[in-house]
Structure formats: C-alpha cells, structure tokens
Write a structure and sequence with these properties.
With 154 residues, the protein is of the alpha+beta class. Helix content is 31%, strand content 28%. It has one domain: RutC-like (60s Ribosomal Protein L30, Chain: A), CATH 3.30.1330.40. A hairpin with a 2-residue loop joins strand 1 and strand 2.
C-alpha cells in the first residue's frame, strides 16, 4: 500500500496525521535501519498535550484506553511519515503496547486493539502484525497507554 491510499483511508476514517510528538527525553521519534523503521513509544498526546492520565481499570475505562491507543498509533504513523514518508510503509511488522494497569486489570489485549485495529483499517492485510500487550505499574507522565511499532518500508 502506498502513502496516498493510506492518507485516503485515514481521511475516510475521519482522521488526519498529527504533528510529530516531540521527544520527552534523549531519543528520537523514529529511526530507520535497513528496510525497517522503529518508532519510539508514543503516548496519547494531541497538540502537545497528554489527553488522559491514570490507571486503566480504575481511573480510565478500557474503552477509553483503546481510543487512546488509537491516538498513539496515529502518532506512530506521523513519526514514520516525518522520517521516510507514509507512502513507503509496506507492512506493520510488530506492535508493543504498554498499559498502566490497576491492580487486577487483565484486559491489556483489548486496550491495545485500539492501535491494532487502526493499523488494520488503514493498511488492510499489510496492517496485520505481531504484537505484545503488557500491563505495567506506571508510564511516563502518568499516561494510561503507550504504543511502539516496527514498520517495514520500501
């Protein structure tokens, strides 16, 4: 899939790529090695602001957390676009999602589906990927979710 169809699909979904989120520490948003782009962990940041904080299963409903994971995925696409261009994405290879989880919360896979389903909606079969969904005690800035991804590019 080329970037033009991906951009068209985003528009069809009522979405647009956000500005690249500035790094919060000493790293870059994305780096290319060979035919892969590795995207640093993305938080649900919109217009420079973290849009939610708290633990999923206590402060943040799982459905809301899935929406936040979707925003993280959009931020990941923006990072790839700024580095090599969205049109170069051939495949979503791997997604790792981290969920700041309340004690006893075990719905991490459902939360990270927000990111996975976005990639599937945008890239079709090329959006199917390997994945991990991990519950953690805390995330940067108190975010409820963080998503990193690896993309194959042409």
């Amino acid at each position: 899939m080329s970037g033009a169809p991906a951009r068209d699909k985003l528009a069809e979904l009522g979405l647009k790529l956000p500005a690249v989120v500035a790094p919060l520490a000493s790293y870059v948003p994305a780096v290319q090695s060979g035919n892969h782009v590795y995207v640093s962990g993305q938080l649900p940041i919109v217009d420079g602001q973290l849009v939610a904080t708290g633990k999923v299963g206590a402060d943040v409903a799982p459905e809301r957390a899935a929406e936040l994971a979707r925003q993280c995925a959009l931020n990941a696409l923006a990072a790839v676009d700024s580095l090599v261009g969205l049109e170069r994405i051939v495949k979503v290879v791997k997604v790792v999602g981290f969920v700041a989880s309340a004690e006893g919360f075990t719905g991490q896979p459902g939360v990270i589906n927000g990111a996975s389903e976005l990639f599937g909606a945008v890239f079709g079969e090329a959006g199917r990927h390997a994945r991990s969904a991990v519950g953690v005690a805390e995330l940067p800035l108190g975010a409820p979710v963080e998503v990193e991804a690896i993309f194959e590019v042409s």
